[in-house]
Amino acid sequence: MQHEARPLDLPAPHAIADRVLAGELDALDAASLTRYLAGEHDTWELIAAADRVRRGRFGNHVHLCSIVNAKQGGCPEDCGFCAQSKHFDTGVSAEKFLTHDQMVSASLRAQAQGASALGLVTATRGYEDGSRALEHMVEGIRAVREAGFTEAHASLGFVSKAGLQRLKDAGMTEFNHNLETGRGYFGEVVTTHSYDDRIATIRHARELGLRTCVGGIMGMGERPEHRAELAMDLRALDVDEVPINFLVSVDGTRLARSEPLQPLEMLRIIACFRLALPRQNIFIAAGRQHLGQLQPLIFSAGASGMMIGDFLTTPNRSVQDDLDMLAQLGLEGSVCGAPRPELAAAAASPRAPVRRLPVLGARPELA
Ligand code: SF4
After folding, report:
1. In CATH, which of 3.20.20.70, 3.30.460.10, 1.10.490.10, 3.40.50.300 is domain 54-349?
2. What is the pLDDT of residues 99-119, one digit of tens each?
3. Whose CA is nearest to atom 2 of ligand 1?
4. Across residues 276-295, what is the average pLDDT?
5. Which of 145, 234, 297, 358 has the maximum number of C-beta atoms within 10 A of its C-beta?
6. For 160-169, how does the pLDDT look when each residue is reduced to its tens digit (9 = 90+)?
7. CA 64–ligand 1 middle distance (angstroms)
8. Which spans in the chain are helix H?
């Protein structure tokens, strides 16, 4: 339900935007956020306020990233949305790890598509210290870094602090570990590990000075208060990037029968997350297609980035369509994280033309 008028006890989104732009990054409280998410305020006014915050903090820069499935399928966890869980019959086969050469090729492809970072993703519960699998990924990160085409990010499940240190030493600059949904709904989606397990891994990464990429999936049956819980936890964890996914239901999974969210609700969620998380790079990943004709409005609603290229098990629209959309909107791609001299050096290499891009969200305190 959506009201044209704001209830008198609910702050105006533009008043929140004013405070955020004045430096008060936690201006939006959990109760108001929940009510915004529940549709107690006009969506277009939320979008207008979120757009002011996006432009004030990110200008016209958009972060582009890309992922590759470095090990597909056969995951022992039972995340109810996931085509790669071995608990569900989805037709996704369990494959071996990509070779290091394949990882480097994926990095080159991502760069050619305009992405500044490649995330190496594996369908695994996690990695034991000293395991061959961990060493394979450490060397994969090193290979991607040494090739110099893109940043090397990773999403590997649970990794100890010592394991994360090994990955960092090999050149990993950012670690992804999504919380998936709010604490109060997590048990409805996953039963083989806990929300606090995930928080512990994110804290390890933060403590090591890695950039952290932590988001969730909308449209799994959660309520507005669960979405607000997720946003507030992301703020408390002070993560750097927030991927927002919209459920693409996959036959065979526990959430196969979920209806896609409506486009305006999707934009409202993005706007609410922007007002709640003004510092974070909010990028839109899987499920963008549910927006239909409204896809370009993700930026007006506050998104500061998007994932390009195919997702793990589902295709995305063409990279050229995404790049054309950015050009028509007058937006520019930006590098994520601290600048790296070797990327500039690679720009001079004849084998790989690298665009020199401005820096988005560099955190000198973590350098
Ligand atoms: S841990 Fe990751 S790969 Fe495994 S089932 Fe959950 S979402 Fe899928």
Report:
1. 3.20.20.70
2. 999 999 999 988 888 778 889
3. 123
4. 94
5. 234
6. 999 999 999 9
7. 23
8. 13-21, 30-37, 43-58, 100-112, 132-147, 161-170, 183-189, 195-207, 224-237, 263-276, 297-300, 319-329, 341-347
